[in-house]
């Protein structure tokens, strides 16, 4: 069910995007967790290279954005956004990359990050279209569970042995 966004929905989108650093992006039949920043009227994400993997985001024109509540982590709002790639030299490149650098944790070299992103990554702008799929009080009953993405990652070996573990003693019953 797609409803037009009310003024309250637009304010909630902006507030959630400013307060939370993670959202879920639904496109191409998959859902991808993504860290983001909100700059003026749009959500910005950086992907590819050494950044978060969001395969095919640069070919999208429409994305569903699922935002969660910061208080309990539950799904709160799902809205539709139009997608565009921000290229170096465009007017929105500087404000977007400045905000992304400020919001990105553990950057090796924050001053060089925008140049790295220009060469190896994609900065994407997602602007709300005004369509709201879910809102507080009208959430879909589907839990949207999905199996984890296959990965070659494995554990290196057996779990470490715990030294000086206290044995469990059962009380004597007789």
Explain how this protein is built:
The chain is α+β, with helices and mostly antiparallel strands and 174 residues long. The protein has a single domain, classed as Electron Transport, Fmn-binding Protein, Chain A (Pnp Oxidase, Chain A, Roll), CATH 2.30.110. Helices cover 18% and strands 32% of the residues. It contains 3 helices and 8 strands. Strands 1, 2, 3, 4, 5, 6, 7 and 8 form an 8-stranded antiparallel beta sheet that branches. β6 (62-68) and β7 (75-86) form a beta hairpin. The N and C termini lie far apart (65 Å). The mean pLDDT is 87.
Strand fraction: 25-35%
How many domains make up the 3D coordinates? 1
Low-confidence stretches: none
The separation of the N and C termini measures: 65 Å
General shape: globular
Strand count, sense and barrel status of the largest sheet are:
8 strands, antiparallel
Radius of gyration: 21 Å
Structural class: alpha+beta
Entry keywords:
alpha+beta, Pnp Oxidase, Chain A, 174 residues
Layout of strands and helices, then pairs:
Elements: E1 3-4, H1 7-19, E2 22-27, E3 30-35, E4 37-39, E5 42-47, E6 62-68, E7 75-86, H2 93-103, H3 113-120, E8 122-134
Antiparallel strand pairs: 1-8, 2-3, 2-6, 4-5, 5-8, 6-7, 7-8
Brief account:
This protein has about 170 residues and is of the alpha+beta class. The protein has one domain (about 5-135): Electron Transport, Fmn-binding Protein, Chain A (Pnp Oxidase, Chain A).
